[in-house]
Amino acid sequence: MNRREGEGCPRRNADAVQDRDASANPSSPVIAAFKVFQQELDTKHDKYERLVKISRDVTIESKRTIFLLHRVTSVPNAEDILNEADVKLDAVRQKIGQIAEELRGEDIFQFHRAFTAGIQEYVEAVSFLHYIRHRSLISLEEINARLVFMTTEKGSAEALQPGGQVLTFQVTPSDYLLGVADLTGELMRMCISSVGNGDIDTPFQLSQFLRQIHDGFSYIGNTGPYEVSKKLHTLRQSLGKVEDACYALRVRGSEIPKHMLADVFSSRTTLLDPEEGVV
Amino acid sequence: MNRREGEGCPRRNADAVQDRDASANPSSPVIAAFKVFQQELDTKHDKYERLVKISRDVTIESKRTIFLLHRVTSVPNAEDILNEADVKLDAVRQKIGQIAEELRGEDIFQFHRAFTAGIQEYVEAVSFLHYIRHRSLISLEEINARLVFMTTEKLDPKGSAEALQPGGQVLTFQVTPSDYLLGVADLTGELMRMCISSVGNGDIDTPFQLSQFLRQIHDGFSYIGNTGPYEVSKKLHTLRQSLGKVEDACYALRVRGSEIPKHMLADVFSSRTTLLDPEEGVV
């Protein structure tokens, strides 16, 4: 936010004598033009600020949904938790509808940095829920299909009212990628906790799933957004932890009683941390 | 935000066989205790988040007030701008009243980091306005005296209302001394800008007043040295640079002022400050 007046531009002050009357006169065309600029910029900054606030709400609610979803491994009745998570994610979608409303008629890439964090967290949460239900990766089209908002005169309703508008929010491919990269960290946590609860099938499924995601990211390499390389490094560590869990179960599983397995993992992951990343 | 369940604590899982019934039973005392913790922490985090949002509004409005105040040097009628700035700062005080309402009954130092940026910007704005009017530094007591809010039964916080309503409560917001210090340090940067722009507008008295004023503030900060908050040392460095720029402006005016016509002075400063930037900081 730079100062717009009196910055001491050499060319301007060489005409200072002639301009002094103009700068004292608030209706000169220069001052009037700057007032218009000021209003435009203030409006833009205010919109950016509103988007940041909504995005923070989206981030917090998505994170709480993810914490909720982590509990499915330790509770016998997973359906309640999944339904509760659905409700929470619907609330998050309402917030994303507000983002879409703010962006109506705007260049979304001017405001992208305001809401990108929230959208990545949302992608992480909704793909985590999808994986728990279907053991597969949700696609970008499926995510975007649920971010359709009907605006009627009274607000968002499901019936298509005559005169109602359809507002969609398109998650960009880069946000989708980064959200999926964060998902892998959550899947790794789910794997370790499911082992601690005695579930010895999930780690192997997760190991294959994460391996496929890792291969996909390796195809992208360094052609994607710059955050991808950092997340690829974290992804390799997560994949390593999951594969170590599978190794401990398969090779050493016969030696160790189930309720001691979590002890093995807590000590192994702390010992192996400096060496992970070499796949 | 760490996961609270199933983290794999060795001692807990050694009793996993006995506990398996307990973990499946949602009314076990352990689960119940954790639910209470969850609600407490969620409430605290939600309050922190609301404070961050209010603080961002305070910061933005204070910054806009400062931009407004910078225009007093280029406009003949300063009173309009000062009154407009007063109105804006009253709006900022309303927001600070909301912060005070959120902090009612809480340990303010648990939430201090949420609102400290906004309060520093507010201190910067209100001390800038005070300097333009009175050519002196506003004191912490004066700042706190204006942050008194009356809450009546209608829950209408009135900023600095003078009548005391029966049954109304008085809510005060105390700016901490460290926030005051850091706000004053930021003020010096704005004063340096005001000095350069006033020279560009032909005012040759302000730089000398500012030079003395900033020198006194700098001496005060040097007394504090490294005993204050850790941000003070970084701001002290910036303060030295600002002081250097102001003193260079005074030098150019006094020693070389007779050589240069007024409307060329600003050119001299634009070129001089860019040349001298790497050397500043050596006072």
UniProtKB/TrEMBL annotation, chain B:
Keywords carried by this UniProt record: Cytoplasm, Developmental protein, Differentiation, DNA-binding, Golgi apparatus, Isopeptide bond, Magnesium, Metal-binding, Nucleus, Spermatogenesis, Ubl conjugation
Region (Disordered): 1-26
One protein family per Pfam: Translin
Residues annotated for Mg(2+) binding in this entry: E124, E190
One example of a Gene Ontology biological process annotation: cell differentiation
GO molecular function, one term: metal ion binding
Compartment list: Cytoplasm, Perinuclear region; Golgi apparatus; Nucleus
Biased composition (Basic and acidic residues): 1-22
Oligomeric form and interacting partners: Ring-shaped heterooctamer of six TSN and two TSNAX subunits. Interacts with GOLGA3, TSNAXIP1, SUN1 and AKAP9. Interacts with the homodimeric form of C1D following gamma-radiation. Interacts with TSN and C1D in a mutually exclusive manner.
Protein name: Translin-associated protein X
Organism, scientific name: Sander lucioperca
Gene of this entry: tsnax
